[in-house]
UniProtKB/TrEMBL annotation:
The lineage of its organism: Eukaryota, Metazoa, Ecdysozoa, Arthropoda, Hexapoda. It comes from the Eukaryota. It is an enzyme of class 2 (transferase). InterPro entries: ICMT_MeTrfase, PPMT_MeTrfase. PANTHER family: PROTEIN-S ISOPRENYLCYSTEINE O-METHYLTRANSFERASE, PROTEIN-S-ISOPRENYLCYSTEINE O-METHYLTRANSFERASE. GO terms for biological process: methylation. Keywords: Endoplasmic reticulum, Membrane, Methyltransferase, S-adenosyl-L-methionine, Transferase, Transmembrane, Transmembrane helix. It is found in: Endoplasmic reticulum membrane; Membrane. This is Protein-S-isoprenylcysteine O-methyltransferase. GO terms for molecular function: protein C-terminal S-isoprenylcysteine carboxyl O-methyltransferase activity. Catalyzes the post-translational methylation of isoprenylated C-terminal cysteine residues. Signal peptide: none annotated. Belongs to the class VI-like SAM-binding methyltransferase superfamily. Isoprenylcysteine carboxyl methyltransferase family. PROSITE patterns: SAM_ICMT.
Length: 275
């Protein structure tokens, strides 16, 4: 049963859905929309986002407000990505794909924790403020994209690369979420230093493939985002930075798990690779 915070976030994330319906009608040229969607869509989106945030501000306070406003923001980014993918000229359409991928990843992190481990649920479960390095990396990728769009627009027309990147993102996302759903309450965004009494070693499902499937999924998702944008410089930088981050994180986690489970984890290490 999804707890209140999860339901609230889902409602707010899906709140721009009417815009998506208008988009579909317009995109399929179904004659039931009585305005020029292509010319008005960004004003509609802006007005709708302002309206949603006013309603949230009036109805909610404190923790519920913090959950709702973040979910509504991510839902608006996702919808903006759909609009960009459909209405902006090439090569800007692929930035719309990227927006959808980013928004869905961050929202689904919160929702999956709400389903699998509600006691650890917090505002940080959106991992929007993951780290300063994460924010800098994202901004750097945007800067590279728009500089290359201006100076080398033909580079961004390599649609096959973007499609492969999208597939990597979807595959990585699925693997990470499968890992979280398999681990249930044993999964946490923060490496635990003290073992809970109900903490179990998970070795079934995707954990039979590798010991850290959530990190493997996130790694491939990260690479995929830069392939979507066809960012050659950030693609290389993301591989190096992500490898270092996950290598350091896994080293700490492996030591922690050895401390928690001892011989049992040593046997698991012998049978299954890191990832």
């Amino acid at each position: 049963m999804l707890l209140f915070e999860g339901k609230l976030s889902l409602l707010c994330f899906l709140s721009p859905t009417p815009l998506a319906v208008l988009l579909i009608f317009s995109y399929l040229e179904i004659d039931v929309v009585f305005i020029d969607i292509e010319e008005s869509v960004w004003w509609i989106l802006l007005s709708y986002v302002v309206f949603i945030n006013i309603i949230i501000h009036i109805l909610l306070t404190d923790y519920a407000y913090q959950i709702a406003v973040r979910a509504a923001f991510l839902g608006s980014v996702f919808t903006s990505g759909l609009l960009a993918a459909c209405f902006l000229p090439d090569p800007l359409t692929i930035f719309g794909w990227y927006m959808c991928v980013m928004a869905f990843f961050h929202y689904s992190e919160f929702l999956t924790i709400a389903i699998t481990n509600p006691r650890s649920l917090s505002i940080d479960s959106y991992i929007l403020n993951h780290s300063n390095e994460y924010i800098i990396a994202a901004i750097t990728s945007w800067v590279e994209f728009f500089i290359e769009v201006y100076f080398f627009p033909e580079l961004k027309e390599m649609r096959l690369v973007s499609c492969i990147g999208l597939c990597l993102c979807v595959g990585g996302e699925c693997m990470r979420k499968l890992a979280m759903l398999t681990a249930q309450g044993n999964f946490n965004h923060v490496v635990q230093s003290v073992r809970r009494s109900d903490h179990e070693l998970v070795t079934h499902g995707v954990y039979r493939i590798c010991r850290h499937p959530s990190y493997v999924g996130w790694f491939y998702w990260s690479m995929g985002t830069q392939m979507i944008l066809v960012n050659p410089l950030c693609f290389v930088a993301y591989i190096l930075a992500s490898w270092k981050f996950f290598n350091d994180r896994i080293t700490v986690e492996e030591l922690t798990l050895l401390n928690f489970f001892g011989e049992k984890y040593l046997e698991y290490q012998d049978k299954v690779g890191t990832g």
